[in-house]
Design a protein that fits this description.
Blueprint lengths: L3 H17 L17 H17 L11 H20 L7 E4 L2 E4 H22 L9 H14 L23 H8 L6
Antiparallel strand pairs: 1-2
Helix pairs in contact: 1-3, 1-4, 2-3, 2-4, 4-5, 4-6, 5-6
Length: about 180
């Protein structure tokens, strides 16, 4: 099993890798998160990292070019990592839109969110989804199956219904499908 801090870093690295393959002309493309364009999805990940680091809501500019988003993501990922790596980083309470969350749970939620949004970003920009961290995706899928109850799924809830996915699909594709992403 991947240690939580290492898992978080690997998810951030996967997101950074996909983000580095985004061109400026793709920033307004639609994403599997139908309410967001690519720039909104990237800003969401940056905002989540900043909220983790500071405990306060953040709203990143959405008018950045790709290079600007790459820099903002690197800064925010390092700040979130520092928050989790602090002596109390996994024991303190983090404020989250759904309520207060202990650090030991928050890191798993952020890791899953970031890796899943790396999948969304890859899908939106024509990059391969099967190149994402398969070992990490496998672990996050198992954890997600344990912690996402049916009452968290559906319209107006954090997750859509689980979507069909081939059993031999990549681990990141299976994770995305479990979290409600359509594969086609």
């Amino acid at each position: 099993m991947v240690e939580p801090l290492e898992a978080h870093r690997r998810a951030q690295d996967a997101f950074a890798h996909v983000l580095s393959g985004v061109s400026d002309d793709q920033l307004d493309a639609s994403t599997p998160c139908t309410e967001w364009r690519v720039r909104d999805l990237v800003a969401h990940v940056i905002d989540g990292n900043r909220r983790t680091a500071t405990g306060a809501a953040s709203h990143s500019p959405r008018d950045e070019d790709t290079a600007g988003f790459v820099a903002l993501h690197a800064e925010s990922a390092a700040a979130a990592d520092a928050a989790f790596a602090a002596p109390d980083g996994l024991t303190r309470t983090y404020e989250f839109p759904l309520g207060a969350v202990p650090g030991s749970r928050m890191i798993g939620m952020r890791t899953t969110d970031v890796l899943t949004h790396a999948w969304d970003l890859a899908r939106a920009t024509g990059q391969p989804t099967d190149a994402l961290d398969g070992e990490l995706a496998t672990e996050l899928l198992a954890a997600s199956r344990d912690r996402i109850p049916a009452e968290f799924r559906g319209p107006g809830k954090p997750f859509d219904d689980e979507q069909p996915c081939e059993p031999d699909a990549s681990a990141s594709d299976r994770l995305a499908a479990f979290l409600g992403r359509r594969q086609s």
